[in-house]
Amino acid sequence: MDKWMYAGLFMMSVMGNGWAQETDAIKLPPPQMEGGKPLMQVLKERHSTREFGAKPLPQQVLSNLLWAANGVNRADSGKRTAPSARDWREIDVYVATAEGVYRYDPITHTLKRTATGDIRGLTGVQDFVATVPLNLVYVAALNRMSDAGAEQKALYSATDAGFIAQNVYLFCASAGLATVVRGSIDRAALGAAMGLGSHQQIILAQSVGYPAKDAQ
Questions:
Q1: What is the pLDDT of residues 170-216, one digit of tens each?
Q2: Which tens digit of pLDDT belongs to each residue from 24-53?
Q3: Using the 8-state DSSP alphabet, how is residue 14 labeled?
């Protein structure tokens, strides 16, 4: 299949999901700041699940999800919804779908394609990761962690990724989505498929979709 035919098929796919954008970048709609469940109810309902339906997430839901995960909530400073040690902002959120892999850019609230093809099956060892609509991959850019030793980089990047994962859990509980964070990953294979560099370290992955009972 030549690249022009592939691009056409990709466009048909994203348009079918309401993602009518350029093949290498998706400008997300502004996140919706109203609605959702009260915080105490969300904390009560937060849980992990490993059964997902195949229904894709609408673009607005994806926009809200990514902003909740690690979006900019203070435009004057570019600071995020998740804390970051020493304001390194070293964690990048990647989105793996059936169409490809994208890096979320919080400043522009845009998805930028970094790889083509469906690599969802590489984001974990469980069977469901290959078919869940969305897998988030949290990648630490260790070169942003200036003046930190190896032990500090490992500690703080894991902590910062955990903050983002919890934001996703809380959003999913509020929005009626299913999710589970995962650490069992063949990081070498996934990193190669994503085209990551030696300064980038995969920390965690997190699957997101509609609950199986609601997505038929």
A1: 999 999 999 999 999 999 999 999 999 999 999 999 999 999 986 44
A2: 789 999 999 999 999 999 999 999 999 999
A3: H
Closest CA relative to residue 135, chosen from 146, 150, 125, 149: 125
Q: How far is CA 77 from the centre of its chain?
A: 22
Residue 60, SS3 per DSSP: helix
Block residue for tokens 């003046």: 147
In angstroms, the CA 137 to CA 122 distance is 11
| Angle of CA points 159, 161, 165, to nearest 5° | 115
- The Cα angle at residue 151 between residues 139 and 78, in degrees rounded to 5: 45
Q: How many residues belong to the chain? A: 216
CA angle (157, 159, 165) in 5-degree steps? 100
The tokens of 135 are what?
């897998």
Both tokens assigned to 38:
């009260």
Q: Phi then psi for 203, rounded to 5 degrees?
A: -100, -60
pTM of the full structure = 0.88
